[in-house]
Amino acid sequence: MKVLRLDKADLERWFVNWAKTREVYGPLRQSSSDSKSISVNKSYTDWAILKDGKFPELGTGLPKSPIKKFFFPQPETLFTCSKRKGDPDAFVFKEPENRDNARKVLVGVRPCDARSVELNNLPFEKDPYFQANRAKTAIVGFTCRDRCQTCFCKEVGGSPVGTEGMDIAVTQLDDFYMAEVITEKGEELVQEGGGASEASGEEISRLKESKAQVESLFSSMSDPAQALEAMKAKDLFALYNAPFWSQLADSCINCGICTFLCPTCYCFDIQDEVVKGTIRRIRYYDSCMFPLFTLQASGHNPRGQKVQRVRNRFMHKFKYFPDRFGPFSCVGCGRCIRECPVNIDIREVLKDLLAVE
Amino acid sequence: MTTLLPNPYIPYPARIDDIVVETEDGNLKTFRLVLEDEGDRARWSHVPGQFAMLSLAGVGEIPIGIASSPTEEGFLLFTVFRAGVVTTALHQMDIGERVGVRGPLGNGFPVDNDLKGKNIVIIAGGFAFTTLRATLLYMLANRGDYGKITVIYGARTPGLLLYRDELKAWAERDDLDTYITIDREAPGWDGLVGFVPTVAGQVAPSPENAAALICGPPIMIKFTMPPLEKIGWTDDQVYLSLENRMKCGQGVCGHCNVGPVYVCKDGPVFTRAQLQGLPTEF
Ligand SMILES: Cc1cc2nc3c(=O)[nH]c(=O)nc-3n(C[C@H](O)[C@H](O)[C@H](O)COP(=O)(O)OP(=O)(O)OC[C@H]3O[C@@H](n4cnc5c(N)ncnc54)[C@H](O)[C@@H]3O)c2cc1C
Ligand code: SF4
Ligand code: SF4
Ligand code: FES
User: Fold this and answer.
1) Residues A156, A328: Cα–Cα separation, whole Å
2) pLDDT tens, B51-87?
3) CA distances (Å), origin A171, targets A59, A142, B209, B223
4) How far apart are alpha carbons A290 and A306 in whole angstroms?
5) Residue A214 has what DSSP assignment?
6) Exposure check for chain B: N or C terminus, fewer CB within 10 A?
């Protein structure tokens, strides 16, 4: 793998050059006055287009929203069709013509968010829209240097210096940057950005040391590989019937914030929209926290009780998904912990689940 | 434009070729659909017990069991109960109008493997007879592949029975035992009277080398099990079909999960033994 050494000016040059042919997004500071945020943090960063040489905020933890909107947008048009009288093609379903085909680069993606794309790729492997979005989007990740208060990436199989899901992984060392070029897409970006000098052997060993040091700051409450295997080995009903669910669900108000802000929650609804003689079938985020999610026409509801829905969210992340696909469906970003209005903490739930005999 | 993978979300255009009002209350209609594109027609191949998503552009999409057998070629049948938004809109459509069909989806009954060579007992209540009709027709068309076939089917009143002409024809066949029942005595009805579970208990089909396919309201299934268990039926011989709310039909959107399985993809047909291993979220 190619490793490059860059100064801040080189990075700026890359961003500016990329913006000539692609949309470049990065975390930018937002102030709470221009948002409807109920977050305690008065000021936060979020994904915004980088124009006019704007440099992203890279030292400030996680942007408020995950990057799933670039792969699984809200909404996605699945198809359109005409409703016009006399049109021989009326009600014939067609792939949307004006799909957003702009190539995109996401700059400053943290390892947890980059990894979420790989995890979501498991259920969306055959989804034409997700795959098309993935093909046109490149991820330039930035590894972490400090630990956010609510982060637990290591416990769920990630790493603060991990590169999973990234095309280029940038690590800051004092006053300069190291870039690991991981994929062909990353290589293309380096070319388009105007290149950079190859890192020396000494710089590469410094990169390794720095990564090892950060890794050691992020202690983990348990061996993550072992935790995953332990969950897979546990009896479904022992977990499902664990005594703590009803107490946990008591305080939840089923607002769904945790699922909307979660990078690895991917449930969706499909609805039709009619505007000026054209029908659009769209899909948009839904949440298993809502009673309507499972309500049937007869009035029967398989998850009519709140405790069933809260349990489903955590069981999906830590048992159903791993049993089906392998890894946990959680990257430990901590957004759900940060934003939950009643302070439900998924780390505690994981601990409780791991303790179930 | 970016080339997309084969797109499982785009329905095939189909014309409503015929509509039969099945029940006296008008709440159940059978729609005969013909796929408009010859290529779609040629590609189409389903197994009894599978379903499709029916699309009414601008209204929505719903999962409906395929009521026609793969041996009936050139059209597809769907028997639809008027329940809510989409089913009501469908009931208001006329012959010649266009709908969309996405499918076939799900697993279907194992007619070509586990069920082959077995004595088959079909038990249905109310309007859940649809995919069992497909199954029965398929088995009759391949009669030599199965042992004794028994059909127990009930509705509240004679006028609520589906496929009444076919029921009559089946009653006359000697390679098939049919027990059609209604809940209460009704004028002009000289057939069986009694609930499906009671009739199932009286018929007492032998569990020897047999499989039961049961579709109906949850309450009927619940009361049908004890009389069968009493005469030795076990959970792995009993096949059920689930109807969770669905959207994608691809195992992605999350709506239909029962624990780790997706009804749309891993089901809708499960043995009762398989369901015992899952949370009762259906
Ligand atoms: C595998 C399968 C096979 C089915 N086969 C048949 C059949 O052969 N005949 C028949 O009449 N009905 C069948 N149903 C039930 C049928 O899908 C619902 O009655 C229908 O979706 C109700 O839609 P609606 O818009 O009229 O009702 P509304 O209450 O207005 O529903 C709104 C939306 O909720 C969803 N929904 C509501 N109830 C159900 C439900 N029970 N199952 C799935 N999604 C639901 C649909 O997306 C629907 O568009 C089947 C369901 C499944 C899952
Ligand atoms: S469940 Fe919570 S911690 Fe895990 S990925 Fe989702 S938002 Fe982040
Ligand atoms: S954010 Fe908290 S209160 Fe809201 S649905 Fe999630 S767990 Fe419940
Ligand atoms: S209907 Fe979407 S997962 Fe089954």
Assistant:
1) 6
2) 999 999 999 999 999 999 999 999 999 999 999 999 9
3) 11, 6, 66, 65
4) 8
5) H
6) N
Out of B87, B253, B257, name the one closest to residue A268 (CB): B253
| Whole-angstrom distance, CA of residue A217 vs CA of residue A196 | 30
Out of A36-50, A63-77, A165-179, B183-197, which region has the weakest mean confidence (pLDDT)?
Answer: A36-50
Question: Is the distance from the beta carbon of residue B245 to the nearest atom of ligand 1 less than 6 Å?
Answer: yes
- Which residues form the pocket of ligand 3, taking CB atoms under 6 Å from any ligand atom? A 252-258, 289, 340-342, 344
A308: closest CA of chain B, how far (Å): 9
Q: To the nearest whole number, what is the mean pLDDT of chain A? A: 92
C-alpha to C-alpha distances, A103 to A20, A79, B191, nearest whole angstrom: 11, 21, 69
| Nearest-10 Cα torsion for B10, B15, B18, B22 | 20
Q: What is the distance between the alpha carbons of residues A201 and A194, in angstroms, rounded to a whole number? A: 22
Kindly state the greatest CA–CA separation across chain B. 65
Residue A311: count other Cβ atoms within 10 Å of its Cβ: 25
For residue A217 the two structure tokens come to 């700051």
Give yes or no for a cis peptide into B268 (omega within 30° of 0). Answer: yes
Tell me the residues of chain B between 161 and 220 that have a Cβ less than 8 Å away from chain A: 218
pLDDT digits (tens, 9 = 90+) for B86-120: 999 999 999 999 999 999 999 999 999 999 999 99
Q: How remote is the CA of residue A161 from the centroid of ligand 1, in Å? A: 47
Give just the sign of the alpha carbon dihedral A23, B10, B92, B128.
Answer: negative
- Strand B210-215 to B238-241 pairing: parallel
Cβ proximity of A183 and A10 under 8 Å? no
The Å distance, Cα B103 to ligand 4 centre, comes to 13
3-class DSSP state of B103: strand
* Interacting residues of A183 by C-beta distance below 8 A, sequence separation 6+: A167
Does residue B57 sit at the A interface (CB-CB below 8 Å)?
Answer: yes
Contact A294 B5 (CB under 8 A): no
- Those residues whose C-beta lies under 8 Å from the C-beta of residue B275, and which sit 6 or more positions away, are B240, B258, B282
A167: Cα separation from own chain's centroid: 15
Of B8, B218, B281, the CB nearest to A308: B281
| DSSP character string of A218-273 | S--SS-HHHHHHHHHHS-HHHHHT-TTHHHHHHH-----HHHHH-TT---EEEEEE
Under the banding of pLDDT at 50, 70 and 90, the label for residue B126 is: confident
**Helix B196-203 vs helix B218-230: angle between axes, to the nearest 10 degrees?**
20
| pLDDT at B1 exceeding the cut of 50 | no
